[in-house]
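Hi R.,

Here's the chain you asked about this morning:
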Amino acid sequence: MPSQAKFQAARMRMKGISKKVTTIMIIVWFSAVLLILTAWFLTKWWLTVENKKYQKEMSAFSSISKVTTTSQLVKYRAKLLGKILADRFEYYEAFSKIGKLFPEEVTVKDINLKDQSLFKLSLLVSTGKLLDQVEKRIEEINKGEVSGIKQAKILGVSYVRAKGAWTVGLEVKLL
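And here is the predicted structure, written out as tokens:
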């Protein structure tokens, strides 16, 4: 019997150790599950808080970006309008220079803008003396005596009997 008692004692000891190991394992598993759930909830809470901050900043940024976009668009349109008005002013100056180029008795029948600074003119001259004045004025232009105009070139001259006048085709280049 003594060996049976030893066996019983070893069995009881093993049962005690297995209870302790099982209890420790349950406590470890429970602690791990509790730790994981706590980490998950804390992470979820933290992400929610950060997402609210992000949404708040994005809404502020989107309102600022709309204002900025509108401001930039207005600035761009104002710049474009200024450029258009400046171009129109330059064209006005160019047309007025060409209009004042010849005496009032010379009629400008047609003005065509070929390039930004190149104009094609058609003049109607009633007398030969006026035609001489037009030729002298073209010589003055080509010599550089007329400010703002670089060059003038006669493209053609013809006499219209029905009107009793000369038509002169010119090409005028501004500075």
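One quick note: The beta strands are 107-113, 118-125, 149-160, 165-174.

Cheers,
M.
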